[in-house]
Amino acid sequence: MADNVKDPVCGMEIRPEDAVATEEHAGRTFHFCSPACHASFVKDPHRYSHPAEEHGHEGHGGH
Ligand SMILES: [Zn+2]
After folding, report:
1. What pTM was computed for the model?
2. For the chain, what is the domain count?
3. For 6-20, how does the pLDDT look when each residue is reduced to its tens digit (9 = 90+)?
4. Structural domain harbouring 12
5. What are phi and psi of 21, to 5 degrees?
6. How far apart are alpha carbons 30 and 23 in whole angstroms?
7. Measured in angstroms, how far is the CA atom of residue 59 from the centroid of ligand 1?
């Protein structure tokens, strides 16, 4: 059973061996389903390197 990874750009789950491109950012390796997704990530890594689930992180200071 292989662990799927998530393409951070389009959100698609892929198998690591199916990734057409990988990129290391902030100590993590990201996998991409297509060269276009990889290009988008390289252009703006910060936008994609944070999981979507962490939306609303800003303004969370009152804990
Ligand atoms: Zn993709």
Report:
1. 0.74
2. 1
3. 999 999 999 999 999
4. 5-53
5. -155, 150
6. 5
7. 29
